[in-house]
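Incident log, support desk, overnight shift.

02:14 A customer reports that sequence design results differ from what the structure should imply. Their input is reproduced verbatim below. On-call engineer (initials T.W.) acknowledged and began investigating.
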């Protein structure tokens, strides 16, 4: 039996740590996400260990009521096994394991906290304050790159937007004048930060949030008008002020610019649908977008343009796991909507409904499921939504802590592999960009190029490593790595050009001729390949 009305400090500490772990820096990695996944997984293991072995309060679920979760897990596991690139599939799988573990851990933690919703509102409010403060400092101190607390402006903005919903709730329901004043101050710097990040989705989401609050909560209308006016003033000022020059200097003012343009996103969507049609029911395999999209028409010029994600969670799930996987994911959202409306008389109805709406919109043009900063707060909200009487388990229940601990241990190992890889990629990509060789061959040999085996820009990691062997005139070692690279991405220009150089330097004339002819066919505008062809033919 759960003891009602009593606070359990360890549960509160767990929720705090999980929330703020999503804000950790990359610690030298080119992407800060693996550090966050790894930390969240480690915190969850510690929490589960405490629950099972110290407090001896088991996390029990009714397997009959969790049939859909169990069947989904089995399906995803076998889907992972059948993926064309198993190594990349494992990277996605470990994140799903952590997500499910966090969900159940938060679910049981929240049930033991009196006033859990209010407590989480305060956690998110403190978080949005630190995120906003960091954003303002980042804006003031950086002349070039300005991305907020994440390495992507859109992700930083989405994180702020999601937590703004709970801040507004506190403002509307706070009875203390001094408390309202403090919360208003936090709201102002949060709005300023979102405007400065210049994410169109972020700005639009802010107005959607205020509009929905205005419609759904009559008592908050005066407050909403004030906030909207402040937002408009911020937007007008920073859209026409000298600060705009600083934003434009980074050439990222437009939300959908460069490799995030509308046309390119549409091409990614088209490619995902095309790949889905190949295997409509079971999909191409978990985490296969990055690998399979290389083979599609959009990558045949330069694979560096292929993104890590489709920028649409639903399309990526459809392409990777098929109609079965998409139905599972949509069922999850359906249950969320049902639970929210079943409890529509509660004062938590409006903020949780808005959270779900904002996440759905974001999922249509971004990839929140893959980013801890966006999805972990959403998972905490899901735990709140499902913590109702209708989901209480009765009858024969089974302790799931050992299962989650068993699954989390290899997940942490994979997260560590990904972190070390991304840390190495930071050096490898920098060296390639600047035509440097800052690593020794012994250091290169220690780098794992198989988990993951594709870099964040879809160039095989083994290709980056082959540069160092070529530089040391270890041509056959370089070719061996490039052979592995071509199995992953035969269209990659960097890989093919390096292989051509190795063939020439090892006097493999026939192979060099075949490859240079293929490059001429693929890139007829590049006259250098024709010159190389002529030079090889003369020998």
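02:41 Re-run completed on a clean worker. Output:
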């Amino acid at each position: 039996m759960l003891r009602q009305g009593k606070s359990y400090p360890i549960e509160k500490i767990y929720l705090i740590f999980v929330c703020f772990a999503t804000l950790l820096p990359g610690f030298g990695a080119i992407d800060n996400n693996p550090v966050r996944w790894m930390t969240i997984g480690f915190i969850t293991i510690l929490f589960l260990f405490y629950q099972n072995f110290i407090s001896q309060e088991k996390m029990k679920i009714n397997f009959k009521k969790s049939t859909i979760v169990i069947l989904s897990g089995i399906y995803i596991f076998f889907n992972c096994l059948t993926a064309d690139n198993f190594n990349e599939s494992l990277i996605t799988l470990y994140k799903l394991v952590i997500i499910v573990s966090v969900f159940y851990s938060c679910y049981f933690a929240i049930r033991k906290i009196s006033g859990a919703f209010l407590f989480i509102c305060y956690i998110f409010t403190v978080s949005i304050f630190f995120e906003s403060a960091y954003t303002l400092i980042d804006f003031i101190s950086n002349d070039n790159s300005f991305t907020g607390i994440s390495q992507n402006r859109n992700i930083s903005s989405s994180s702020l937007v999601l937590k703004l919903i709970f801040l507004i709730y506190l403002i509307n329901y706070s009875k203390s004048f001094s408390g309202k004043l403090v919360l208003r101050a936090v709201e102002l710097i949060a709005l300023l930060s979102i405007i400065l990040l210049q994410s169109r989705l972020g700005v639009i989401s802010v107005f959607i949030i205020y509009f929905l609050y205005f419609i759904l909560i009559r008592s908050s209308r005066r407050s909403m008008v004030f906030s909207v006016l402040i937002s408009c003033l911020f937007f007008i000022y920073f859209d026409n002020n000298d600060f705009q020059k600083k934003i434009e200097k980074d050439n990222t003012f437009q939300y959908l610019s460069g490799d995030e343009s509308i046309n390119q996103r549409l091409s990614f969507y088209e490619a995902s649908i095309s790949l889905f049609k190949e295997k409509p029911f079971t999909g191409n395999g978990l985490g296969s977008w990055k690998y399979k999209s290389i083979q599609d028409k959009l990558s045949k010029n330069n694979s560096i343009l292929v993104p890590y994600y489709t920028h649409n969670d639903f399309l990526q799930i459809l392409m990777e796991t098929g109609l079965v996987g998409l139905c599972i994911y949509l069922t999850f959202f359906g249950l969320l909507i049902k639970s929210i409306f079943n409890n529509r008389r509660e004062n938590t109805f409006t903020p949780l409904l808005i959270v779900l709406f904002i996440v759905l919109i974001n999922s249509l043009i971004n990839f929140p499921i893959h980013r801890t900063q966006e999805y972990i707060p959403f998972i905490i909200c899901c735990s709140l939504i499902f913590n109702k009487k209708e989901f209480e388990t009765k009858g024969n229940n089974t302790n799931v802590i050992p299962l989650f601990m068993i699954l989390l241990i290899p997940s942490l190992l994979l997260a560590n592999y990904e972190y070390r890889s991304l840390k190495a990629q930071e050096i490898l990509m920098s060296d390639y960009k600047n035509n440097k060789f800052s690593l020794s061959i012994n250091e290169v040999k220690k780098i794992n190029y198989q988990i993951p085996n594709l870099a964040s820009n879809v160039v095989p990691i083994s290709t980056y490593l082959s540069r160092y062997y070529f530089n040391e005139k270890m041509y056959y070692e370089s070719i061996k790595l490039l052979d592995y690279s071509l199995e992953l991405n035969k269209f990659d220009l960097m890989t093919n050009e390096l292989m051509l150089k190795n063939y020439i330097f090892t006097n493999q004339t026939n192979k060099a001729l075949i490859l240079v002819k293929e490059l001429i066919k693929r890139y007829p505008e590049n006259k250098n390949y024709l010159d190389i062809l002529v030079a090889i033919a003369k020998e």
